[in-house]
Amino acid sequence: MKKKIFITGGTGTLGINLIKKLSNTDHKLFVIYRDKKKLLPFKNLKKKINFIKLNLSNKVLLNKTINKINPHIVFHLASSYFNPPDLDLEDHLEANFYNTFNLVNALKKTQIEKFIFSGSAAVYENGKNLSEKSKYSFVNNYGFSKLLCSKLLITYKNLYNFPYIELRFFSFYGDWEKSTRLVKSAITSGLKKKIFYLFSENQIRDYIYIDDAVNALISVSKKKNIFGIFNICSAKKQSTHKLVKIIYKKLNLKKEMVKTKYNLKTNIIKEMVGNNLKAKKILKWQPMFSIDDGLNQAIRSIKNH
Prior knowledge:
38% of the residues lie in helices and 20% in strands. The chain is α/β, with parallel strands linked by helices.
């Protein structure tokens, strides 16, 4: 059945890749944006997408837009960013919590079928085998603001039977990744045969290729009678320092070209590896790309761009 799909954060890594896949369907897409320059990835898709210039902080215009479209499915991907962590708490709260509140408040009286929220593993305390029931962290502003969004959605579910699903993404990477992210910056540097400097201590992460992340979003949009929180991760640990060396090896560069230049303020999360059993069992989703396959794909896409 043809659906009206409303997407926020469409110019981010997750949004761009999701929209490109959805553009091959019969669904009617409505994508909001703030900066026209960021629509470049969609230059060949403009006839398939309804772009709307809108800031989620503008409650009046947001309500008018939602009432006019009356979407069946909403992908709420708009968010502040974590790396580099140079935003203060007020910035994170404005971009995440208050904008999410404005959006769900505008949607609560509509006939929305699904509200899919891109959560973050940054809500958890450091650790491995992190499940949806793991302890929360309150030490970084980004994670705290995303946690408030999560609590807001649970409250709206209880009060208004709001049909939300939160996908808590771990470290996704791949096509259209921001240049400041580790994988993208390492590949870009390596292609230019430059020395790559690691500015933080070695950390353990759970990396997931962008296609697997997008497949989780699309998969959950098709499920009926499902709500709640699901980790979207590989459940496999990966050292950040070793990851860069793997990338340089794939580019036929010597590991000596990867050097350390520590700045401990760049990150405070030492280890973050997830548990994806709930997503596998209930959503019938699982990652298809190994870290090796994902990096090969990422290198090819950056070369093409």
